[in-house]
Amino acid sequence: MKNEFVKSVVILASGSSISQFTVVLLTPLLTRLYTPEDFGVLSVYMSIVLTLSIIASLHYEEAIPLPLKETNATYLLILSFVLLVANTILVTLLLKWFKNPILQSFQTKGLEEIMLFIPFSLFGFGLFHLFEMWMIRQEDYLQITVGKVRMNLSQVFSQGGLGWFIPSASSLMAGEVLGRLIGGGGMAYISWKNLKGKHSDFSLQSLWRVAHRYIRFPLIASWSSLINGLSQHLPTLFIASYLGVKEAGWYFLAQRILALPDALIGHSVKQVYIGKSAKMLNINFDDFVNLFWNTVKKMGMLSMFIYIIIDITAPFIFPVVFGDAWGEASLFLQCLSIFFLFQLVAGPISATFILLEEQYLLALSEIIKFAVLILGIMVAYLFLESALSIVLLLSVSQGLGSIFIVLLAWKALKRKNLKKEKMKEA
Predict the structure, then answer these.
(1) Do 162 and 175 contact (CB within 8 A), yes or no?
(2) Taking the alpha carbons of 342, 218, 138, 275 in that order, is the dihedral positive or negative?
(3) Taking the CA atoms of the chain, what radius of gyration do you get in angstroms?
(4) d(Cα 118, Cα 107) in Å, to the nearest integer?
(5) With contact defined as beta carbons under 8 Å apart, do 412 and 361 qualify?
């Protein structure tokens, strides 16, 4: 605990542990209140919301930890919030105007209810994330931890309570919305108390200047992140439409279990990696390089250990814990673990592109990852019929994409180091 990096990760991971373990512990209750088909509808809903939320603030919130001046960071926070409100209104109007054509074109179960809840979750998710980035800048990891616990527990208890009376996909989505709004609202309230009165000299000219300074975030980084979101959530939409919502429900449960290590450890490591690296880049670049490689090595060993244990125990645990209707999900989990193993390694160091402002390489890595996934989906659609073979192929495709992200992050690091060497020689 004398190591500040490790200490910060432990603080973040502890909050994630409390909330995520509570979610997992209550999941057996939810799987007995709701059917795999209900979870399948929720998986489609979450795939849409999480993809849209990536560009809710056009990615300006990702730049909040970077400015040296606190005033510029505040302007980025204001700009991100304004864009979030504007995009939430835009999505609401688009869903209202094109509701009938969408319903006629896609015969997905629960689609009308999905469209109703989307704007609320989008706003709650965006609100939480932009204030999360503000707290990362302040290195206030304790408040991030509290916010995560508040949001996740609100979600699962709302879903459990609503499901007790009305066990339907709509109850699952309504619980998700309540959790997002409570979590995002809590983060906003705490940040507002700290910001109130500190920056009274607001000007539109300064806001425009900051928007122009970090224009590469919406122009390049936002699109690469959108492609990354599609890479993560397109498989769910493909499985729901090609195999059915029951299979999508199994896929969703497998993902929820496999994503637990990333939620507990990977995301926390990434947040601290961003906070520490942003300062190292302005002081000692060699320390940043060492941090990069140490993160890759340690996360690689940890990831292999975690997912081998999960793969071995899942077939024995799933039917007992979640019910007989969910036994098939354990086989989905074993197939998907290939992707999540590499994702846990690639996730934290993917922030390297943003830290080095190498958005072009970030965009290239996401395009390659997306292209590999699309190729996998096409092969699955044309040649495969078994649900397990399809899930395995999609997992391998996504795993290869994560490997490309690591390789290109290394390239970004080498490019930045080469530039620094040339500047020293000059």
Answers:
(1) yes
(2) positive
(3) 21
(4) 18
(5) yes
> Residue type for 21, please?
F
What is the model's pTM? Answer: 0.80
Q: What is the DSSP letter of 2?
A: -
Instruction: Give how far Cα 224 sits from Cα of 288, 356, 426, Å.
Output: 24, 15, 34
Distance between CA atoms of 257 and 25, rounded to whole angstroms? 11
Q: Is 350 helix (H, G, I), strand (E, B) or coil?
A: coil
Tell me the C-alpha to C-alpha distance, in Å, between residue 250 and each of 29, 239, 253, 259, 389.
16, 10, 5, 14, 14
CA distance readout (Å), 258 to 50, 334, 393: 17, 9, 17
Task: Measure the CA–CA gap between 323 and 159, rounded to whole angstroms.
Answer: 18
What angle in degrees, to the nearest 10, is found between the helix axes of 329-349 and 245-258? Answer: 50
Residue 48 · residue 118 · CB < 8 Å = yes
Contact 358, 415 (CB under 8 A): yes
Handedness of CA 353, 122, 109, 41 (dihedral sign): positive
Classify residue 35 by its DSSP letter. Answer: -
Distance CA 18, CA 153 (A): 9
- For residue 173 the two structure tokens come to 């989505």
Could you report the per-residue pLDDT of 140-165, keeping only the tens digit for each? 888 888 898 899 889 999 999 999 99
pLDDT in tens, 351-388: 888 788 787 787 788 889 899 999 999 999 999 989 99
Integer Cα distance of 119 and 248 in angstroms: 23
Q: Is the per-residue pLDDT at 128 higher than 80?
A: yes
